[in-house]
From TrEMBL, chain A:
Secretion signal, residue range per the UniProt entry: none
InterPro entries per the UniProt record, alphabetical: 2Fe-2S-bd, 2Fe-2S-bd_dom_sf, 2Fe-2S_ferredoxin-like_sf, 2Fe-2S_ferredoxin-type, 2Fe2S_fd_BS, Beta-grasp_dom_sf, Diverse_Oxidoreductases
Record's keyword annotation contains Iron: yes
Matches recorded under Gene3D superfamilies: 3.10.20.30, [2Fe-2S]-binding domain
Species: Actibacterium naphthalenivorans
UniProt keywords, alphabetically: 2Fe-2S, Iron, Iron-sulfur, Metal-binding, Oxidoreductase
Protein name stated in the entry: Aerobic-type carbon monoxide dehydrogenase small subunit (CoxS/CutS family)
One Pfam family this sequence matches: Fer2
UniProtKB/TrEMBL annotation, chain B:
EC number of this enzyme: 1.2.7.4
Organism of derivation: Actibacterium naphthalenivorans
Enzyme class: oxidoreductase
Keywords assigned by UniProt, alphabetized: Molybdenum, Oxidoreductase
Name of the protein: Carbon-monoxide dehydrogenase large subunit
Pfam family membership, one: Ald_Xan_dh_C
Ranges where the Aldehyde oxidase/xanthine dehydrogenase a/b hammerhead domain occurs: 34-148
Coiled coil stretches, renumbered: none
Length: 170, 794
């Protein structure tokens, strides 16, 4: 193969910035974010679409970026963890994660933040069971998930202007 | 929050500003929440190359021929190494925690003539990109001759089993060790009731979300090897690299910034670390290797696999008179830095008063991926065997398992207690955790009721599981007797800066345990400085004093003492300088609001920042006092501390299918004084879910015919997802340890210990009328269904 056939130029909007970039056709989107754009907040854990470390938002849908090729991002609107905070100030969602100890090693955290952010679109506070189902595409080996569920419940309550019902395990 | 921390800890008088015991926000969080962590793969160096590794696809094979010509010719490939070359360039990998009595098994980073497990490295390639390096692997021709293999732990001790290391061993038994006290055989023979069984513990994957990884550069002129590694033990990796690479330690700096989970897996140097360093040194170009998940499952280390032949004898009242446990752990194809679990021998008698007991450990080799340390390190395994057999014995004696535990449990006045394997349990109140767990699930009422199916056809069962956990090490002397290549201490350096803050340097790397936060809390408490003004610099051998590292639930037990000593040294000097500046005696001063002031007149004060600047410049300090303001302290606790507790599981089993729901899981535990309750809860919950995963679903399975790992991918290995986790209720008692600073006990591993036995006991309790007995993990519906059928048949 020659250089002219194994690279393609793509344009996309990434975290509010429009860029044009030549990418190898076989590069997956997570490698593109990390290696080409230097957005190392998106992590890679299995490259098989299971662990969810690479979860990002593409056109307002959460996707596993290791299962996308970079060329599939052409024309897309991409949001990664780096776009979440407001300058040095953590967003409400990030604050909720911090308050509820929803992270330990932090490797999975960008994936959970992406999924959590997408749950705003439900327009209401999800039940804990719903939250657990919705975040099951991202694995966390440190926390046992309880802090993550609490943080998301708390955050959705704040976003939708209602306090989350405190659900104590039976 | 269903987590309570009781008050009543000895704190300095100024309790409104006490920071030990408070759930302050973590130091680590902001960067990690913003995608600003610095994990191994986040570091990319100029002119960096990437490495890929060709691995043996067979469990046991001779390597007849390696031809790398085509790979070397691929554009972008820079270097290829094979086993012969690596053996010339380096020494075998060393072991940090040897098995007492075992010979060393020389293990080079690449196999030369023979590979002993699927996944063992055979050839390494570096290229300008990982993709090209992997393309090159496809072009390497390796001619293997598969030879007889053995993956089964029982078969490996048969006389006809192929011996893995015939140069140093006559069989695949690597070593045996016995610990005993009293007359366990005589007590057994005289006992009213004796029960014994074999308990089989599954091989599992520690499974950190960040795989292993290394980025290394070498400047030959400076003789400086700069290593970024995803490790729990930077200083120990430095030691091992020096030994294998024939370098002085002073030529090596190892830095672990953020580590994406470790759980015991990342304890020491692995073959790929040696390979990346060799390539970097030969090429004088930086080399990166990031393990992919398929490599992870075959070439890192696994955990746990063991069987325990456990015997418990009791008198007619149910008093345990003897425990004998012979267990066998699988170490896999070679001896990893920490090897297979060793702590079953320490806690095999659990929280019970048993004077006559013996434990024998056998370590065997098989043609499987090496086993290394994994959270719990033998304690979950032996707890499963003992607690399940104890319930069975109770039923045999027509006693309730609760009563059986009550009767045998060590009382506070029995402690300290020297176990038959000569561990010394420090103070505690084990019985209280048992009673709290029993009350929480209303055990007495349940026990008295019949096991009738509910309206939904399910039968409810309750299982208990009590435990002690050794946290920390007894002493450096204890470790020396076992050949361990590390100490029992921790160390810290505190150094003030001109901005009025304190820089805290520790060799303990950050992998989620919250050590940056807890260390800063202790420093702030002792020194009287604001928590926000303590900055922790973790995991850099170039900056931190030599230490041991974060494993064995030992970090805080040892580090708390070092932090206390160093902070006190800083505080003392701060007061001396302030006394001069304020023209007062030191005992007339107090620390308040980032300043030192007169007790009698708080208006007269000097700020920390001013004091720090005086010390740093040497200007404005008393005569005869040396400039500078920093302190390094090393601390070894006088003994290990033992955490303890009881778990109770409530399950509802479908007797037709063996399917079951965990309706409640209660964990009562004591980790002494919690420095940060939020961190404690996180550690306990996280470890519990790992323990539940191993108890319910997780199992690495090998095909005995082909010797291949059958489920070595994220798709096929079932780690718990959020939707799999049952409700968990935590209850907490707080008995300050009398052998550690601040009364802390370790907490990192405790959750892994009780789940398997609690759940198994609950299922067996539900199905008591079916004669169900289960002695093997994981506890799958299929296994339960088979046990129901076996019970019906008998």
């Amino acid at each position: 193969m020659t250089a002219s056939t194994n690279r393609v130029e793509i344009s996309l909007e990434i975290n509010g910035r429009t860029i044009t970039q030549s990418v190898p056709v076989r590069m997956h989107a997570a490698d593109f974010l990390r290696q080409t754009l230097g957005l190392t907040g998106t992590h890679i854990g299995c490259e098989q679409g299971v662990c969810g470390m690479c979860t990002i938002s593409v056109d307002d849908r959460v996707v596993k970026s290791c299962l996308l090729l970079a060329v599939q991002l052409d024309g897309a609107r991409v949001r990664t963890v780096e776009a979440l905070s407001d300058g040095d100030r953590l967003s409400l969602l990030q604050e909720a994660f911090k308050r509820h100890h929803a992270l330990q090693c932090g490797f999975c955290t960008p994936g959970f933040l992406a999924v959590a952010k997408s749950l705003e679109a439900w327009g209401r506070v999800l039940t804990r069971a719903e939250i657990r189902d919705e975040i099951s595409g991202v694995l966390c080996r440190c926390t046992g998930y309880e802090g993550i569920v609490r943080a998301i419940e708390d955050y959705l309550g704040a976003v939708h202007g209602m306090s989350a019902q405190t659900e104590v395990p039976a | 929050m269903n987590f309570q921390v009781t008050a009543g800890v000895d704190m300095p008088a100024d309790t409104d500003r006490a920071i030990i015991g408070r759930s302050v926000p973590r130091k680590e969080d902001d960067r990690l929440l913003r995608g600003g962590g610095l994990f191994a793969d986040d570091v990319t160096l100029a002119h960096q190359l990437e490495m890929a590794v060709a691995r043996c696809p067979f469990p046991h094979a001779r390597i007849l021929r390696v031809d790398t010509t085509a790979a070397e010719a691929l554009p972008g490939v820079v270097q290829v190494l094979d086993g012969r070359r690596v053996a010339e360039l380096s020494e075998p990998l060393t072991v940090l925690r040897p098995v007492p009595g075992a010979p060393s098994l020389p293990y080079y980073a690449l196999a030369r003539d023979r590979a002993t497990h699927e996944g063992q490295p055979v050839v390494s390639v570096v290229a300008v990109t990982r993709a090209i390096a992997e393309d090159a692997l496809e072009l390497i021709e390796i001619e293997y001759e598969p030879i007889p293999h053995v993956t089964d732990m029982t078969a490996t001790l048969e006389p006809d089993a192929p011996v893995l290391h015939p140069d140093v061993l006559e069989s695949n038994l690597m070593a045996s060790n016995v610990d005993r006290a009293g007359e366990p055989e005589a007590q057994r023979d005289a006992a009213h009731a004796v029960l014994a069984d074999r308990f089989v513990v599954n091989r599992v994957a520690p499974l950190p979300m960040e795989t292993r990884g290394i980025v290394v550069s070498w400047r030959s002129g400076a003789r400086a090897l700069d290593v970024r590694s995803s490790t729990q033990v930077p200083h120990l990796v430095r030691k091992q690299l020096a030994e294998s690479l024939r370098l002085d330690e002073s030529s090596i700096r190892v830095v672990a910034s953020d580590v994406g989970g470790a759980y015991g897996l990342k304890l020491g140097a692995f073959p790929e670390d040696i390979l990346a360093c060799l390539h970097a040194m030969l090429l004088e170009r930086p080399v990166k290797w990031i393990e992919d998940r398929m490599e992870y499952f075959r070439a890192s280390t696994h955990g746990r696999e063991a069987f325990h032949d456990m015997m418990i004898a009791a008198d007619k009242d149910g008093r345990i008179t003897s425990i004998m446990n012979e267990y066998t752990t699988d170490i896999g194809g070679w001896n990893s830095p920490f090897g297979s679990s060793q702590l079953s021998s320490v806690t095999f008698t659990g929280p019970y008063r048993v004077a006559d007991a013996q434990v024998k450990r056998n370590v065997v080799l098989t043609n499987k991926t090496p086993v290394g340390a994994y959270r719990g390190y033998g304690q979950p395994e032996v707890n499963f065997a003992r607690e399940v057999l104890l319930d069975r014995l109770a039923r045999r004696l027509n006693k309730s398992p609760l009563e059986m535990r009550r009767l045998n449990m060590l009382r506070p006045e029995d402690l300290p207690w020297t176990t038959p394997s000569r561990a010394i349990y420090d103070n505690g109140d084990y019985l209280r955790t048992l009673e709290m767990a029993a009350t929480a699930v209303d055990y007495e009422r349940h026990w008295a009721a019949s096991r009738k199916p509910r309206g939904d056809g399910r039968i409810v069962g309750i299982g208990l599981s009590s435990f002690v956990e050794r946290t920390g090490y007894a002493s450096a002397r204890f470790l020396a007797n076992r050949g361990s290549q590390f100490g029992a201490h921790e160390s810290v350096t505190l150094r003030v800066n001109r901005s009025g803050g304190v820089d805290l340097y520790t060799g303990v790397s950050t992998f989620g345990q919250g050590s940056e936060t807890a260390f800063a809390q202790i420093c702030a408490q002792v020194l009287g400085i604001d928590y926000d003004f303590v900055r922790v610099h973790a995991g850099d051998t170039g900056a931190s004093p030599l230490n041991t590292g974060a494993f064995a639930s030992r970090t805080l037990i040892a580090a708390a003492g070092a932090l206390k000593e160093a902070a006190e040294a800083i505080r003392d000097k701060v007061l001396v300088i302030a006394a001069m500046a304020l023209e007062a005696e030191t005992d007339a001063l107090e620390i308040r609001d980032m300043a030192v002031c007169l007790k009698a007149d708080q208006g007269r004060s000097i700020s920390f920042k001013d004091i720090f600047n005086r010390a740093i410049t040497g200007q404005g300090i008393p005569e005869g006092i040396a400039p500078g303001l920093e302190a390094t302290a090393h601390f070894e606790p006088r003994s290990a501390s033992f955490s303890f507790g009881t778990a109770a599981a409530v399950v509802a089993v479908d007797p037709a299918t063996g399917d079951f729901e965990i309706e409640r899981f209660v964990m009562v535990h004591d980790c002494g004084v919690p420095v940060n309750p939020l961190l404690v809860e996180g550690q306990v919950r996280g470890a519990l879910v790992q323990g539940l995963g191993a108890a319910l679903d997780e199992e690495l399975r090998y095909d005995p015919e082909t010797g291949q790992l059958m489920n070595g991918s994220m798709m096929d290995y079932f780690a718990p997802m959020a939707s799999d986790v049952p409700p968990i209720e935590l209850l907490h008692t707080e008995v300050p340890s009398d052998v550690t600073p601040f009364g802390v006990r370790g907490v990192g591993e405790v959750g892994t210990i009780p789940p398997a036995a609690a759940l198994t006991n609950a299922v067996c309790d539900a199905l008591v009328d079916f004669g169900v007995e289960i002695s093997q993990m994981p506890l799958t519906p299929e296994r339960i269904w088979r046990a129901i059928r076996a019970g019906a048949a008998s």
